[in-house]
Specification:
Mean pLDDT: 91
Low-confidence stretches: none
Strand content: 35-45%
Order of helices and strands: EEEEEEEEEEEEEEEEEEEEHEEE
Structural class: mainly beta
Distance between the termini: 105 Å
Shape: rod-shaped
Helix content: under 10%
Number of helices: 1
Strand order of the largest sheet: 1-7-6-3
Radius of gyration: 42 Å
Largest sheet: 4 strands, mixed
């Protein structure tokens, strides 16, 4: 028994697609030039990592279904040993088993619901929000493209590569103050594309983009020639479709000489006489210039 077993070309690295059916994946063959039991070879795994097995007589290597995302490669040592009685000879074969990716994972968004707010007067092309999805696969199977679903009234678009959502038209909170739509992430799988969705809500916040308007023009009132001081003659009213401080209105008399006769409450718009020394002739017409501001 003077010859060691030799594996030859069967000792090589293997590429096995993940999710392959459990069973045979490769045959290792070792030759021994001796005769009889000295040339009979048996096989065993020195380290099968508790996953692989080998037929001791014919060298057929078997594997369960593998998951690349759990472990992408394995290193095995296969021993071929002759059956010599006086002296046993053996050979070792080191194999790397690479688990090849299959498109078996969907893209996964970093969150299922995204929300953001944006002021209604932002310029076109403003980034409002960036979504992100990842895929446990690799290569093209993990390459993600983004798109928007549902109607956004053409107000937004998304960068297919980066997930950045930007404005594409002027926003108007007074017309529509909230947008809700889906964003889709699609991987680059060939033949079997996988996708997932997330919900996006964008709130449009107020900008002071409206001028207050009087509810009527002009306002008219009849008064006596000697009205009492402080008695309301008229209440002005105006409106502003903005919100909060942008819609809080202040009234004032523009001309100083008119403020010497009349008083206009800044917050309520109530007009009263403030000068008892003024007497009006019957038929007198007073034209007051009034301003309202937010």
């Amino acid at each position: 028994n003077d010859n060691n077993p030799s594996f030859g070309s069967s000792c090589r690295d293997l590429n096995i697609p993940e999710n392959s059916a459990k069973g045979y994946i490769h045959t290792l063959i070792a030759y021994d030039q001796d005769s009889g039991k000295n040339g009979q070879v048996r096989y065993n795994l020195r380290d099968g990592q508790g996953v692989f097995s080998i037929n001791s007589e014919n060298g057929q290597l078997s594997s369960p279904a593998l998951d690349r995302e759990s472990q992408s490669s394995y290193k095995l040592e296969v021993i071929a040993q002759d059956q010599g009685s006086a002296q046993v000879r053996s050979a070792s074969c080191m194999i790397t088993i690479n688990v090849i990716d299959e498109n078996d994972n969907e893209p996964n968004f970093s969150q299922s619901i995204y929300s953001a707010s944006v002021k209604e007067d932002v310029p076109l092309g403003t980034e409002v929000l960036k979504v992100f999805a990842s895929d446990q696969d690799e290569g093209a199977h993990a390459a993600i493209k983004y798109s928007l679903e549902n109607a956004t009234h053409s107000a937004f678009t998304i960068n297919a590569d980066t997930g950045s959502i930007i404005t594409t038209e002027n926003l108007d909170r007074e017309t529509l103050d909230q947008y809700t739509f889906d964003v889709m992430a699609v991987d680059g799988g060939k033949g079997m594309v996988k996708s997932s969705r997330a919900v996006v809500t964008i709130l449009i916040t107020d900008a002071n983009d409206h001028t207050p308007q009087f509810d009527q023009f002009p306002f008219r009132v009849n008064m006596s020639a000697t009205p009492a001081i402080g008695v309301p003659l008229l209440r002005l009213s105006a409106s502003d479709p903005d919100l909060g401080a942008h819609s809080q209105l202040t009234y004032n008399l523009i001309r100083p000489e008119q403020r010497a006769k009349f008083e206009l409450s800044a917050n309520e718009g109530i007009l009263t006489v403030n000068n008892a020394d003024v007497n009006w002739e019957p038929g007198t017409v007073e034209r007051l210039e009034v301003a309202v501001s937010d």
